[in-house]
What does this fold into?
Amino acid sequence: MNPNQKFAIPTLNQGLTAHFGHCEKFAILDVVDNKVVNEEYVTPPVHQPGVYPKYLADLGVNIIIAGGMGVKAQNLFAENNIQVYMGVQEGLPKQLVEDYLNNQLKTGMNLCDH
It folds into this structure.
């Protein structure tokens, strides 16, 4: 596991939202030596196909924790070397990242149906 990582989590009211493409903000969390060292919220550009993968890749994100997303988005993130963990039901961004770091992140079915 890489000790230095950057996570993106789609949020609504600073909590995980199941609707990736309709998030209010992305929580961006920096991890150094397996500890969260920075958490900020950024407003994404207007949602259009292919925009978010490039936007998040340009921010240096390499892991996304999400409820769900469409297959095309998953493929575009893979092309940008961004791992996607889906099926996460709810949670606050920092806790979700800490769960991931401790191998306790609960994933499941893609919560997106398109």
